[in-house]
User: Fold this.
Amino acid sequence: MNCAVPVLRLRRAKLVHVGTRVFGDEAKARAWARSPQPALDGKIPDELVDPLDGLERCLAELESLAP
Assistant:
């Protein structure tokens, strides 16, 4: 079994969890994670979670959006 798949699921779940806290809504967090983000060079956060530094970059961007 490939360990990468569960790891990617956990990283994406963390992205949504933090996004839900930032936006106050899980649907908004998921929409953000699936849309190109100008602050991430137009890349889609869900596609950046591997490698780990991509996840960290996405989380930092989310945190910068927190009120």
User: Anything to note?
Assistant: DSSP finds four helices and no strands in the chain. The mean pLDDT is 93. The first helix runs from residue 4 to 23. Residues 1-33 form one domain.
